[in-house]
Amino acid sequence: MKGKVVVGMSGGVDSSVAAYLLKEQGYDVIGVTMRMWNDKEEGCGGFSAVDDAKKVAESLDIPYYVMDFSEAFKKHVMDYFAKEYLHARTPNPCIVCNRYVKWEALLERSREFGADYIATGHYARIKRLENDRFAIYNSATAAKDQTYALYMLTQDQLARTIMPVGAYEKSKIREIAEKAGIPVAHKSDSQEICFVPDNDYVSFIKRYTGVQMPKGNFVDTDGNVLGQHQGLLNYTIGQRRGLNLPMGHRVFVKALRPDTNEVVIAENEDMFTSEVKCTSISFMGTADFNDGDEFVGKIRYGHKGTLCRIYKTGDDEITARFLEPVRAATPGQALVLYKDDYVALGGTIK
């Protein structure tokens, strides 16, 4: 045996194939579903996910357990999600869930099994660099690449993690699942935030916090009042739908101002910037940098990346100066910086 590995099984095809591949490679595999969001049939650790994961574990003949991580999930993900929106920022809950729940909490619990590693079905690869640091590398399939959401993982976490599906295209993963007789070979992928399955995050936050956001003014970049908004919670940077402004052409949300309760509206050309600041820096493939070093920066999950130079501009603050302007950089989202197809470092956009 190569060692004991706990595989986080969501009931989807990716984590199922991860368990299958590791067993084929000679690992002692244990399947675990992390129950995070209670009283829901869908989503992470929901009833349907548990049923599917259990069927997969039975088909692979591996031990299987359901573990309750709802307390950690509420603290690190749901509370954070609501708080960020109430402070007029747009959070990325998957990033903090990966760091503090799917890795930190699962690694801690995996020690109860005497496990050497944990594994997931993420589309990413882990490599050890010449500087002896571990880094997340882009997966074999750009369409499914998940490295952006993993930039906060620590060196210790990476050293004890295996990501077996990162070397494959999605179509190949489904083919492997079908040939292996895995029951969820053709199960569709989940796209929504697991604890907001209807994608109505505004109603969720109102229910979760009991806070009702007051109405305020839409203003242009010169401060002229354009109309009345329905509460800052309803808007995010770059939004153009649902503004209900009689402008006669497309306009976009450029900024949210919680101090004055204003939503700033701008033209498309005003949505671009060459400078993005970030804080709460996480170093991965690199432990340091020199001012002016070049990286490829991604400002959101779907951003293909743009060349930039970075500078230390404060305590725990980095400024990225992009060689070509980027559109709708959003406070609360992540700026992830890549070097040679691996994650070097990242932070939270101010």
Task: Pick out its properties.
350 residues; six-stranded antiparallel barrel; 17 strands
* Low-confidence regions: none
Q: Which structural class best describes the helix and strand composition?
A: alpha/beta
Q: Enumerate the strands of the largest sheet in spatial order, edge to edge or round the barrel.
A: 12-15-14-13-16-17
The proportion of residues in beta strands is 25-35%
Shape: globular
Instruction: Estimate the mean pLDDT confidence.
Output: 93
Distance between the termini: 47 Å
Rounded radius of gyration (Å): 21 Å
SSE sequence, one letter per element: EHEHEHHEEEHEHHEEEEEEEEEE
How helical, in percent, are the residues? 10-25%
Summarize this, please?
The chain has seven helices and 17 strands. It has 350 residues and is an alpha/beta fold. The termini are far apart.
Structure description:
Helix 1 packs parallel to helix 2 and helix 1 crosses helix 6. The N and C termini lie far apart (47 Å). It is built from seven helices and 17 strands. It has helices at 13-24, 47-60, 70-86, 93-110, 155-159, 170-180, 201-209, and strands spanning 4-8, 28-35, 64-68, 117-119, 125-128, 134-137, 161-162, 216-219, 225-229, 252-257, 262-266, 272-283, 293-298, 306-314, 317-327, 334-339, 342-349. With 350 residues, it is α/β, with parallel strands linked by helices. The protein has a six-stranded antiparallel β-barrel with strand order 12-15-14-13-16-17. A five-stranded parallel β-sheet has the order 3-2-1-4-7, sandwiched between helices.
